[in-house]
């Protein structure tokens, strides 16, 4: 007698099988300790570290990928690496890394209270037909371009493998966009700090202030001396960000948080950014100094009656902040220092304005 199975019963198995193949081929794992792993999806220009942590109370993932399908293979590799599947929490360091929360439907998601509003655009892409079509077309064009580039790789097998990984990533993302995927908002939020007690370890979540995003969060694991910085310490030599949404309290907070972790009495063995190799504590110094020098410099310029153009010349990146790379024209970070200066100029003007003073429009 031949037994048949419905597609509905087969589909989860088929999806898991596909995720398993992707996990083996395209996900890289690096062990930092018995309790901590770094995981990322391979690609020629792709390095987005997700962090897996095991504890007495379960597994924790710090950050997710762009969508559930691009996150699931990483989840599976971490499951296998630790030999367990009891997920306790997912932590989002900021909204850019919350797209894959849907791969953990029954797991509490922890993030700063600003993150829910920050990821509304992901929901809008699912519900607005025009935006959804645009997102699908843009992602599909990336796949087409990558396939064209793959033909030019030739006999470089290592680079070809990275290209295949990048192509597969975007294929999965297109599938999620076409089918529609659940965008999970955080279920546990905080305003300033929050500590997760996991039995043998604790994770301290600290709001950094608005900058790269409105919900930038650091995660500190004192038992391992690890500081997870998300996109705050993006990579060595990259400028920090003072955004259009930043206020004076955000700049002050950023300086205070960096001072806290630059204190030698606080154990920081490694700094783990989302988008670079692990850094050291000393790599935080130029970031802290940037905020301090920019704030002091803009305040001084305004006291002296300088124009913003004169302040820009005095605080030029090439002269004052040589520790940071200057992105070339066309790079997404090109002009960041000038944007930081304009935003800080606005912030300091608002700070010096008498309390209750009304803003006037020209």
Verbal overview:
This protein is of the alpha/beta class. The chain has 3 domains: 19-118 and 184-282, Metallo-beta-lactamase, Chain A (4-Layer Sandwich); 121-179; 285-352. Helix content is 43%, strand content 16%. It has 11 helices and 12 strands. The protein has helices at 7-26, 68-82, 115-118, 120-127, 129-150, 157-179, 248-262, 285-303, 308-314, 317-320, 336-352; strands at 27-31, 36-41, 50-55, 58-62, 87-91, 109-112, 188-190, 193-197, 202-207, 217-221, 226-230, 270-273. The strands form 2 sheets. A 7-stranded mixed beta sheet has the order 1-2-3-4-5-6-7. 39% of the residues are buried.
CATH topology of the largest domain: Metallo-beta-lactamase, Chain A
E-strand count: 12
In total, how many domains does the architecture comprise? 3
Q: Can you tell me the CATH class of the largest domain?
A: Alpha Beta
Order of helices and strands: HEEEEHEEHHHHEEEEEHEHHHH
Q: Can you identify the CATH superfamily of the largest domain?
A: Ribonuclease Z/Hydroxyacylglutathione hydrolase-like
Sheet having the most strands:
7 strands, mixed
Overall pLDDT level? 91
- What is the gyration radius calculated from CA atoms? 22 Å
Please, how many helices? 11
Named CATH architecture of the largest domain: 4-Layer Sandwich
Oligomer: single chain
Give the N-terminus to C-terminus distance in angstroms: 84 Å
Q: Tell me the β content.
A: 15-25%
The main sheet orders its strands as: 1-2-3-4-5-6-7
> Which stretches are poorly predicted, pLDDT < 50 over at least 5 residues?
1-16, 358-362
Coarse morphology: globular
């Amino acid at each position: 007698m031949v037994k048949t199975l419905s597609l509905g019963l087969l589909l989860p198995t088929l999806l898991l099988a596909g995720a398993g193949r992707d996990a083996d081929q395209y996900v890289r794992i690096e062990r930092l300790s018995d309790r901590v792993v770094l995981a990322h999806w391979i690609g020629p220009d792709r390095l987005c570290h997700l962090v897996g942590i095991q504890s007495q109370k379960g597994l924790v993932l710090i950050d997710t990928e762009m969508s559930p399908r691009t996150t699931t293979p990483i989840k599976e590799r971490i499951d296998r690496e630790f030999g367990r599947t009891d997920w306790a929490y997912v932590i989002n360091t900021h909204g850019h890394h919350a797209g894959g929360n849907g791969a953990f439907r029954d797991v509490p998601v922890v993030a700063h209270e600003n993150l829910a509003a920050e990821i509304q655009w992901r929901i809008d892409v699912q519900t607005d037909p025009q935006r959804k079509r645009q997102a699908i077309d843009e992602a599909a064009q990336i796949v087409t371009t990558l396939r064209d580039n793959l033909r030019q790789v030739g006999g470089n097998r290592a680079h070809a493998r990275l290209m295949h990984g990048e192509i597969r990533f975007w294929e999965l993302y297109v599938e999620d966009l076409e089918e529609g995927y659940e965008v999970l908002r955080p279920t546990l939020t905080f305003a300033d700090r929050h500590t997760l007690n996991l039995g043998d370890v604790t994770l301290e979540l600290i709001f950094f202030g608005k900058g790269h995003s409105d919900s930038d969060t650091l995660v500190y694991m004192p038992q391992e001396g690890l500081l997870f910085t998300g996109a705050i310490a993006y990579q060595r030599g990259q400028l920090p960000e003072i955004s259009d949404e930043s206020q004076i309290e955000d700049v002050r907070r950023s300086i205070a948080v960096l001072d806290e972790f630059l204190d030698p009495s606080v154990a920081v063995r490694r700094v783990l950014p989302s988008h670079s190799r692990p850094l050291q504590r000393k790599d935080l110094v130029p970031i802290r100094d940037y905020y301090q020098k920019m704030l002091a410099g803009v305040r001084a310029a305004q006291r002296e009656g300088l124009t913003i153009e004169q302040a820009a010349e005095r605080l030029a990146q090439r002269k004052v902040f040589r520790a940071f790379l200057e992105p070339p024209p066309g790079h997404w970070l090109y002009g960041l220092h000038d944007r930081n200066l304009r935003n800080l100029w606005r912030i300091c003007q608002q700070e010096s304005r008498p309390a209750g003073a009304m803003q006037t429009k020209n």
